[in-house]
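Pipeline run #58 for the internal structure catalog. This entry was flagged by the ingest filter as a single-chain record with no existing model, so it goes straight to prediction. Upstream metadata was stripped on purpose; only the residue string is passed forward. Reviewer on rotation: M.T. Logging verbosity set to normal.
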Amino acid sequence: MLADAPPPSVSPQTQTWAAILSAIAGALAVVVKKRFNRNSSTKPKKDSITHAELQQGLDAMRDRLTAGYLAMADKFDAHQRDILSAIGTQGTAIEKRLDALESTVARLDERTKK
């Protein structure tokens, strides 16, 4: 029965177009497979860190910053005390000089009144 059927007529031009289309479809399949491959995105990267390591690093950085701010605040307090004591010393010296000047002016005034 199959032997009685006429052979199908396929032109060479149709075969050429079919080969071209199958080559293009195969190339597109390869590009799509490489572009949207899920296996590469699920693998952890070598330079990735865990959440715990990130938190540990952030805590260490926060501790260093806090220590720096505390050291700076201590230095500011020490310098402020030094400045306040210097101002007090200079104030006392200026007050003594003004008292001496006042007494000298008072003596000069007494001499000129006579």
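catalog note: Helices lie at 12-35, 39-42, 51-113.
catalog note: The CA atoms of residues 96 and 102 lie 10 Å apart.
status: ready for reviewer M.T.
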